[in-house]
Design brief:
With 387 residues, the chain is of the alpha/beta class. 32% of the residues lie in helices and 25% in strands. The chain has 2 domains: 152 residues, VC0802-like (2-Layer Sandwich); 183 residues, 3-Layer(aba) Sandwich (Rossmann fold). α2 packs across α7 and α3 crosses α4. The radius of gyration is 24 Å and the shape is elongated.
Length: 387
């Protein structure tokens, strides 16, 4: 217990509860949800495991100091007086990322600049030299969060956002964020025990995340580097043991995970990414138009797809969404069908009433994750059979 410390996992709006569930499943202690974040307690090894395994986390931060800052001079003095020698030396490269809200600090870049001035002035006054800023490959990424007059300094253990899984090397114009894809899968209630289909799969993000989820493959097993690998307490042997332990839990789900797209370029990119993720044995990709697809088996099927929203599509977006609804009804009985879209007018053209609507954001676009249960026959008959 003495080696445990508090951490914060950042996530997207609407994913807080599923991230908390992931953390509890991994063994985190004192899990508490907040706004686009979940705090928890664990040790160094758990920090490694969280970065490696969490599917819906964007960053894992380690808070190292909290205090009040009433103005820019107080922020400068805080960074000037803080003992940075525990984390940096003169040859180190660093970057400060700031998130600010409230009346005192209104510009994140200004806050980062004042904090940076305090840090480097401390080294210059003590050693006549200073560590340098590096925005691309820093040895230490410092996170500064100020809400009104309350300031938290954290170390960013992840580095680049954890949606950079390491498998996607070919993308379309607007690829789906990997963390968003993983969260959509879990929000849709899929457990990895029924067939899965993305009929507009693009570069394959949803089917890859589905396969990794169903196979229990650590989300970031293909990632090349984490920020904590440059920390002074980096334990390579411990990280390797954690990797090996998690890989022993990988399983064969014995289900079909399929993707299709009518664009040859999308199919080519999806196949490249699937191969790069070492998932060729678990995912089948075909060049097919969704409107010509037929359900391949009589058993339950889970559809999750991210159709065009209209920004980059030629033709009638409303007709596209009407076609999606018609295809669901005509060709996919006994199916749990889910769509994410930001085009609320086009959604009305699906012609089916969603039984669930979940508010989310795809980038800056406010979107809805919508559930359309497609029964065998009519809904009324389905209910009679249940009775």
């Amino acid at each position: 217990m003495e080696d445990n410390f508090k951490m914060v996992a950042k996530t997207f709006y609407g994913f807080e509860q599923i991230l908390a569930k992931e953390l509890r499943f991994l063994g985190a202690q004192d899990v508490k949800t907040g706004n686009r974040m979940v705090s928890f307690v664990g040790d160094l090894g758990f920090m490694y495991k969280a970065n490696l395994c969490l599917r819906t986390a964007l960053k894992i931060l380690k808070p190292i100091h909290n205090s009040k800052v009433e103005d820019e001079e107080a922020l400068y003095q805080l960074f000037y007086n803080f003992n940075w020698g525990d984390y940096l030396d003169l040859d180190s490269k660093f970057i400060i990322d700031s998130v600010v809200s409230g009346q005192i600090f209104t510009h994140s870049q200004f806050a980062s600049q004042k904090a940076k001035d305090g840090l480097v002035d401390q080294f210059r006054d003590r050693h006549n030299e200073r560590p340098s800023v590096d925005t691309n490959r820093p040895d230490l990424r410092i996170n500064l969060h100020i809400q009104e007059d309350f300031c938290t300094i954290s170390l960013d253990s992840s580095g680049a956002s954890l949606h950079h899984r390491g498998y996607r090397i070919a993308t379309n114009i607007a690829p789906l964020n990997e963390v968003l894809a993983a969260g959509l899968i879990q929000l849709s209630g899929w457990k990895g025990n029924s067939d899965f289909l993305d009929p507009m799969c693009g570069s394959g993000t949803l089917v890859i995340e589905a396969a990794m989820f169903a196979c229990n493959i650590p989300a970031n097993i293909n990632r090349k580097v984490f920020a904590f690998e440059k920390w002074t307490d980096w334990d390579a042997d411990l990280f390797e043991k954690i990797q090996e332990s998690q890989l022993k839990k990988v399983k064969n789900p014995l289900i079909q995970i399929n993707g299709s797209d009518k664009a040859p370029s999308a199919i080519e990119k999806a196949l490249i990414n699937i191969e790069n993720a070492n998932l060729d044995d678990f995912i089948k990709i075909e060049k097919k138009d969704f409107f010509q697809l037929e359900k391949e088996s009589s058993g339950p099927l889970h559809i999750l797809t991210n159709p065009p929203y209209g920004e980059r599509i030629e033709g009638d977006i409303n007709a596209l969404y009407q076609g999606i609804g018609d295809t669901f009804k005509q060709s996919f009985p006994n199916t749990h069908a889910w769509i994410i879209s930001s085009n609320m007018d086009a959604i009305k053209c699906v012609g089916l009433r969603p039984s669930r609507k979940i508010k989310l954001f795809n980038g800056k676009l406010e979107s809805k994750l919508l559930y359309y249960p497609i029964y065998e026959g009519t809904k009324r008959i389905h209910k009679l059979n249940k009775d």
